[in-house]
């Protein structure tokens, strides 16, 4: 009888251990983790001059311009290369011929890309680094793991 009771207790303890919940990562915790990853990347790349927005997007001017910024709702055409921080490319359009372009501040792209377009001046080249919450977040997408920080190099070609 004692052996049977001990086996039942061991089984229950084993089940409880197996059912242990994974760590719950809130958006705030993920944002802190992403920010640490981005800060380390900037340090490793010796990038000291950047702008960080309230949303957590990092904006680095590569070739500056005094051209105008596009107003929200304006359609612009850009060359862009999307990469992971390790340099692997996941998306690009360097033809500037995206048929419809992008609407600045619109919903046709991920939030961080759209926000980055609001900062880009005509004929300026810049890099934006998006925390995962401004990219594909915890759901990820085809070829992009959940909670992945993304980087885009952008060149605004036309559109006002």
What labels describe this entry?
160 residues; Chitinase A, domain 3; seven-stranded antiparallel β-sheet; 3 helices
Question: What does this protein structure show overall?
Answer:
Strands 1, 2, 3, 4, 5, 6 and 7 form a seven-stranded antiparallel beta sheet that branches. The chain has a single domain, classed as Roll (Chitinase A, domain 3), CATH 3.10.50.40. The protein is globular and about 45 Å long. Mean pLDDT is 85; it is low at 15-21. With 160 residues, it is of the alpha+beta class. Helices cover 28% and strands 25% of the residues. A hairpin with a 5-residue loop joins β1 (51-52) and β2. The relative contact order is 0.20.
Which class of secondary structure composition applies to the elements? alpha+beta
| Number of E strands | 7
What is the CATH C-level name? Alpha Beta
Number of domains: 1
> What would the CATH topology be?
Chitinase A, domain 3
| CATH architectural type | Roll
Q: Which range does the strand content fall in?
A: 25-35%
Mean pLDDT: 85
How many alpha or pi helices? Answer: 3
User: Helicity, in percent?
Assistant: 25-40%
Which overall shape is indicated by the principal axes computed on the Cα atoms? globular
Summary?
Helices cover 28% and strands 25% of the residues. It is of the alpha+beta class and 160 residues long. Strands 1, 2, 3, 4, 5, 6 and 7 form a 7-stranded antiparallel β-sheet that branches.
Helix and strand topology:
Blueprint: H1 2-18, H2 27-44, E1 51-52, E2 58-63, E3 75-84, E4 89-93, E5 102-103, H3 111-119, E6 125-130, E7 150-158
Antiparallel strand pairs: 1-2, 2-6, 3-4, 3-5, 3-7, 6-7
